[in-house]
Amino acid sequence: MIWLEREFDFAAGAILNFKKPVGKSSFHIVKKVREIVNTKVGHAGTLDPFAEGVLLICTGKATKRVAEFMDLSKEYIGEIELGAETNTDDRTGEIIAQYQVPQINLNEFEEICNTFVGEIYQVPPMFSAKKIQGRRLYKIARTGKVIERTAKLIRIDSIEILNFQSPAATLKITCSKGTYIRALARDIGQKIGCGGYLKSLVRTRIGNFSIEESLDIDDFKQLVN
Questions:
Q1: Which of 48, 89, 90, 187 is an active site residue?
Q2: pTM, entire model
Q3: With contact defined as beta carbons under 8 Å apart, do 56 and 16 qualify?
């Protein structure tokens, strides 16, 4: 459940597998852990507030390993809603367009999903922390502006369809760092011709760190105390 270089010596370095709950930011978890361990703390990969799941926290000297853990493959379970687009590419945004969802069966949907497997170029969402000319995209987006973004090379290792009942689909996705699952939801919807957005998201794994072994803050407090 917890890997420690020295038992409870958080300054020496610890890698902690937390389950971030829905509604909390990644920084919120970092702040709470910092208050408990009273040393330097960093995380290896942000989760949006509406998402939940594995969030790796590095403490003390282990913060030097953040980049190493960010490079690990990630697994997500995401629910896509077809037939609409939002300005954030997920359910937290405003609906900006709605379309009729064409009749599509499971095999056809699977074929479309498979076109995204492999190395692909993905345009980051406007509401993201990516910087363009020194400014975070989400700060620009909050002014109502939409600017051109350069597509970034990412890798989708696999897409497994867990459920498909149009206009909803649940996918298990394994991918590289830098992948936006809500951008994938948007792009799948666009490929079908009806738009789409991410309704829910759970990060189930980072490398060998799984959600089944994740801690919440209360568990962690009890363990340390």
A1: 48
A2: 0.90
A3: yes
120/161 Cα distance (integer angstroms): 19
Establish whether 187 is a catalytic residue.
Answer: no
Both tokens assigned to 13: 């370095």
Nearest to 50 by CA among 30, 25, 32: 25
Nearest to 154 by CA among 137, 174, 131: 174
Q: Is 184 helix (H, G, I), strand (E, B) or coil?
A: helix
Instruction: Give SS3 for 53.
Output: strand
- Per residue in 23-71, pLDDT (tens digit) is 998 999 999 999 999 999 999 988 988 999 999 999 999 999 999 999 9
Write the single-letter amino acid at 142.
Answer: R
What domains, with CATH codes, occur in the chain? 2-71+207-224 (3.30.2350.10), 74-205 (3.30.2350.10)
